[in-house]
Amino acid sequence: MRCTRPSIVTRRVLPVSTALALAGALTLPSIARAGDSEECSAKTLRGVYLFHASGYNIVNGAALPKAIIEKLVFDGDGNVSTPAVSLSINGTILQPPQGAPGTYTVDADCTGTLTFADAAGNKFDLQIKPNGSEINMLQTNTNTVMQGTVQRVARVEKDHE
Prior knowledge:
By secondary structure, the chain is α+β, with helices and mostly antiparallel strands. The protein has a single domain (42-154), classed as Beta Barrel (Lipocalin), CATH 2.40.128. Helix content is 17%, strand content 47%. The protein has one helix at 8-35; strands spanning 46-59, 62-75, 79-89, 92-94, 102-106, 111-116, 123-128, 134-139, 144-154. Strands 1-2-3-5-6-7-8-9 form an eight-stranded antiparallel β-barrel. The longest helix is centred in the first third of the chain and has 28 residues, at 8-35.
């Protein structure tokens, strides 16, 4: 009984062609995304959103843990209100009747900023999903380390006056 081995060409060409096909398939989603022309603006953020985040305040060199859950209402014109908020700072729970209002900007590349009109002047950098359904937020105040996610839970249409 004679045993045949695959030729050198078969052993080398098959893995190379498989690798090329796999590489081509993996680049298709990025090519499709690169062609997307979706741009963002302040109007991208409109509706009721739920925010949750955790991190630390740095006080005298010590990292004090903090966490927050919050309802945010973006109006599509650069203003945000916070009708409900609950936070824990180093284990102390705070539940003010409502949080501070704020303003936001959104650039065409779906990045932006959010600044609250509170005593601390809390500021965040934003990365926004083009359809406005999700936002990643990173606090940018000195001596803070906090990041979180915001999910839209309801769309609010602009009032027609």
